[in-house]
Amino acid sequence: MNKVFIAPRRYVQGRHALNEAGALVGALGKRVLTLWDSQVKAIVGEAVLASLKAAGLAVEDAAFAGDSTRAEAARVARLIQACKADVIMGVGGGKTLDTAKAAGAAAGVKVVTCPTVASNDSPTSSYTVWYDEQGNCLGFESWGVNPDLVLVDTQVIAQAPVRTFVAGMGDALATWLEAEACFKARGPNLAGGTATLAALALARLCYDILMESGLDAKRAVERKIVTPAVEKVVEANVLLSGLGFESGGCSTAHMVANCLPSFPECHGLMHGHEVGFGVITQLCLDDDMPVERVHRIVDFEIAVGLPVTFADIGLPKVGRDRLARIGEICAGPGSLCENHPFTVTADDIVNALIAADALGEERKAARKTL
Ligand SMILES: [Zn+2]
Fold this sequence. Notes:
alpha/beta
């Protein structure tokens, strides 16, 4: 299998970067369809529209219906064609951006993603995660190309709820651990090949930034301010995590995370929180890492507020019988758990989940006695 690395064509990040939307988007086309929900438009709409219009661009405005369904993507693609737009600009959370990517691919126009939260890996990736009308996840689909421009305004991200920022750190924390497991197993990445050394290096940088600056950045975002630590962690959450998962590959942390939404008790969690617990599970599945480093990762998760125990993910006292379902899916055909240099059984996963909960409890107790 070839080594493959994919990425967006341009990434721009900074305080008030949305004020430069006109010049940046104008390099891609002349007629823009913006896609956002009313809440996001109320926050950034004025600045974005002023910048686009000052650059002489024709702008049409579409209200996002709320979920990245195939019907919504088809509706937005029809709007692109009706107004003869040559650029679709998704502004908001992962579902808005995923819908913009899908509609842009269907209509054959340039795609711009502007994340207003740093909670997930959507902005840079070539993928759309599909949902049905009831909000159930149906899986994901690649468009073969990444966005033409990713425009990240760190002031907007610092004003979003801190919970979204922490979830993004959970998703980003998994990037290097999963890419490394995948690399050792010679497993496939999500770009249609195996990982380059560049993808591994970016994934490792993502991890190092979080461990060094994650807590400082969270404190700043709680006060809605942008500091150098916030800039670094936004880059880790949005750029490095996005490039790292797609071109590095995923394994158990994401596989466990993807199983949790089937538990009704977990519905209040964001994807990155689920990945955070998946990280601890993966650390308990693979004994490759020195115990001091394992403790450092668990302690980091506790410090920033990511879930590390069954109680934290809404499943206190969950029994082995219910966990067995996760084990079966993780050990099933086509599972991301195949991306380890050893065979993973359903029992291994259940044991790792229980060990993760026990480790999380122990590190929380140790923290209290400090
Ligand atoms: Zn993820």
